[in-house]
Amino acid sequence: MSNCLKIGDYLLNGDQIISALVRYKLLEPMVGQILLDEVIKEVPLSKQELFYTLFGATEAPIPEDFEGFIKQWCQIKGVTLDYFSSVVLRELQVQKFKQLRFASQIESEFLRIKSELDQVEYSVIQLTHLPRAQELYFQLRDDGADFMELAQQYSLGSERLTGGRVGPVPLSTLPIEVGALFRNEQVGTVYGPIPVADGFWVVRLEQFTAARLNEATRADLMNRLYEEWLQTQTKAMTEVPGTIAVLSDAVLAEAVSANAASANAVGRLPVAAN
């Protein structure tokens, strides 16, 4: 009897699992992870890297009984050795692969998309009636009217609940017409009425925060480069006819036999001597 997957009261056989992968749009992510397995086979981790990652930054020497250390770590974390090799170790390999493959591209990627990462806080009043928008704009610009009070009274958007205040949000998420004005970085300046979709905005820039290449930004950019690369690799594979197919039992048996050696190689722990 073949194996099946049990989820709650549901039992899924092989055909049903395949159908579920397609239905729930999980097939392409799985293909990407299988492709990644082939890549990270060539990314070994030294005992030093593994020890310092698991144990944390420390001056402690690497244990002579390294396998015993791994077993003890698994016991403390409540995981099996199989889980360690297939999940924990794999994730560490993926992180090292990201560093090796994309770390050198971070600075250029930051300069390329810096404008998308800038953050702003602003106040806005959304209206559909142009004369009213003009009236409120002049009240704010010339008469020193309170923006919060006008937003709470007149704005048609959800920001009326916060007195018109929005942010911080990426500048790139704003309508192009508004973002272009905010790039001048004139904090406190009121702009309007600005045609946006079917309405008009009256806005004031409250704060402009230029993006900086700190550690958090580096991590975000590395993950972005990695995800783009993985999507490209996955797309290239799924577009090749016959690369992904449902095999009959006979054909499957031949494929399993042919790939047995490769599967055994993947299962070994890729830990270098040092």
Describe the structure.
The protein has 12 helices and 6 strands. It is α+β, with helices and mostly antiparallel strands and 274 residues long. It has 2 domains: 124 residues, no CATH class; 91 residues, Chitinase A, domain 3 (Roll), CATH 3.10.50. The strands form 2 sheets. A 4-stranded antiparallel β-sheet has the order 4-3-6-5, sandwiched between helices. Strands 1-2 form a two-stranded antiparallel ribbon. Strand 5 and strand 6 form a beta hairpin. Helix 2 crosses helix 5 and helix 6 packs across helix 10.
Summarize the structure.
It is built from twelve helices and six strands. It has helices at about 15-25, 25-40, 45-55, 65-75, 80-100, 105-115, 130-140, 145-155, 175-180, 215-240, 250-260, 260-265, and strands spanning about 5, 10, 120-125, 165-170, 190-195, 200-210. The strands form two sheets. The chain has a four-stranded antiparallel sheet, sandwiched between helices. A two-stranded antiparallel sheet has the order 1-2.
Distance between the termini: 45 Å
Number of helices in the DSSP assignment: 12
Number of strands: 6
The shape is elongated
Number of domains: 2
- Name the poorly predicted regions: none
Mean pLDDT: 88
* Portion in helices: 40-55%
Q: State the strand order across the main sheet.
A: 4-3-6-5
What's the quaternary structure here? single chain
Strand percentage, roughly?
5-15%
Any idea what the radius of gyration is?
28 Å
What string, H for helix and E for strand, traces the elements in order? EEHHHHHHEHHEHEEHHH
Largest sheet: 4 strands, antiparallel
Helix/strand/pairing category: alpha+beta
